[in-house]
Structure to design on (140 residues):
């Protein structure tokens, strides 16, 4: 049985994920509309953080811990894909890595602003968050 403290932390991680998603989406889309590259880059970083917070929620919920590094996040997602068929079917590790590369690496750090790709990334982040929430509801 999951402890109350863990349940509360999972809830907070999910709330944070959605708040970062909302702020990141708004900032990125506004930046694209107005041609503000730094706003786009900051929005992309917030969207990436939404993925990280959702991933924290899932790993805490299923493994009882919060990873301390990006390497560990990837390893724990791989572990979850091996242990839970539902996680494996969703390919969360690959999706996590793709968001990291596109939002954090290419957009935030490298400053590559591909409008079509970024609009697609917004949808991908939302789908990732919804899939994680659904898994948390279904898997105990």
């Amino acid at each position: 049985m999951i402890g109350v403290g863990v349940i509360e932390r999972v809830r907070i991680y999910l709330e944070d994920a959605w708040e970062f998603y909302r702020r990141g989406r708004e900032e990125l889309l506004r930046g694209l509309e107005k041609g503000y590259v730094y706003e786009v880059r900051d929005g992309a970083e917030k969207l990436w953080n939404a993925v990280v917070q959702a991933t924290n929620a899932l790993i805490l919920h299923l493994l009882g811990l919060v990873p301390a590094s990006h390497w560990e996040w990837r390893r724990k997602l791989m572990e979850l894909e091996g242990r839970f068929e539902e996680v494996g079917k969703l390919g969360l590790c690959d999706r996590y890595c793709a968001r990291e590369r596109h939002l954090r690496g290419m957009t935030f750090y490298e400053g590559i602003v591909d409008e079509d790709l970024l609009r697609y990334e917004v949808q991908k982040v939302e789908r990732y968050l919804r899939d994680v929430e659904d898994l948390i509801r279904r898997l105990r």
The chain is about 85% helix and 0% strand. The chain has one domain: 4-138. The chain has a mean pLDDT of 95.
